[in-house]
C-alpha cells in the first residue's frame, strides 16, 4: 500500500508555516532601509530615539502582562515593531522621554487594554502619534535637517510651494520630516520586500495612494490649476503617504480582511488624506485618515464578507 494517502480532518486547516513572529520579523526587515537611512541622515540622536521607542514598547508590554497575569507575548516581536513604528513617526529633535511615552501609550492604552494583539481596533503607533501631536504640538512640529530647523516640504507646499527642495532630494530623503517618512526610496525598497514575501497585497497601498492623487488632481484641475505632475509627485514622495499606505494602513488587526473591504478602506483613506491636505490647517493627513477609517472596519467587513459556498445559488437559496 502506498504511503501517499489523503488525510481528512475538520477545519480550521493550516495553509502555511507563517506565524505572528515571522510576519512581524518580515515587517521589521522591510523597515530597516528607512531606519538605517534615518540614522545616516539625522545622526546618532535618531538612533537613540529609535532604541528608546523600541525599549519603551517592549517594556510596557512585558510589565502590563506581568501585572495583569496575562501570557507574555514579547517574543512575537509585535511590541518591538510597534516601538519601531512610533520612532519612525516622530522627529529626531524630540526629548528622549517622548518616544518612551508614545510607545507606552501605543502598547498599554491602544493595544493591551483592548485585549492585546489582534484585538486593537486602530493602529497603535498611529494612535500614539496622534496623541503626541495633540499633547505636545510644539515638540512634535520641530523639523530639522543638517542642524537647520525648517518647515517640511508639505508645509512649504501648503504655503504656496516657494523654495521647495528638488524632487530628487525629496525622493531620496535629503529633507526634514519624521524619521521614517523622509526617504521614499528606502520605504519603497521595504514595500517591495513585503509584496514579494506576500506579507501585504497591492490593494490597500496602491488604491490608497492612487485615490489620494486622483482626488488632489481633480480638485486642483477644477480649481483652475491644471494638471501639475511635480505638485502631485511631492504629495507622494514627501510626508507620510508611502509609510502609511504600505506599512500602517495594512495592519492586519485594524484593516479589513475582505478584498472588497480593503479597497473600500483604501479609497476612504485616500479621500480623507486629500481633503485634510488641501482644506485643513494641517499639511499632513495620513495618520488621521487611517485612524478614521480604522473605525469603519467592522461595518465595512459586515457588508463585504464573502458568501459561504452554496449560499444564494439555486440549491442553497431559501
Automatic annotation (TrEMBL):
GO biological process, one term: transmembrane transport
Subcellular location: Cell membrane
Top-rank taxon: Bacteria
Spans through the membrane: 46-64, 96-114, 171-194, 206-223, 229-249, 261-280
Essential cofactor(s): FMN
Pfam families cross-referenced by the UniProt entry: NQR2_RnfD_RnfE (PF03116)
Membrane-topology descriptor: Multi-pass membrane protein
Keywords: Cell membrane, Electron transport, Flavoprotein, FMN, Membrane, Phosphoprotein, Translocase, Transmembrane, Transmembrane helix, Transport
GO cellular component: plasma membrane
Record-listed FMN phosphoryl threonine modification sites: 152
Known EC number: 7.-.-.-
Subunit structure: The complex is composed of six subunits: RnfA, RnfB, RnfC, RnfD, RnfE and RnfG.
HAMAP family the UniProt entry points to: RsxD_RnfD
Function: Part of a membrane-bound complex that couples electron transfer with translocation of ions across the membrane.
PANTHER family assigned to the protein according to its UniProt record, in alphabetical order: ELECTRON TRANSPORT COMPLEX PROTEIN RNFD (PTHR30578), ION-TRANSLOCATING OXIDOREDUCTASE COMPLEX SUBUNIT D (PTHR30578:SF0)
NCBIfam families: rnfD (TIGR01946)
Family assignment from sequence similarity: Belongs to the NqrB/RnfD family.
Record's protein name: Ion-translocating oxidoreductase complex subunit D
Gene (name only): rnfD
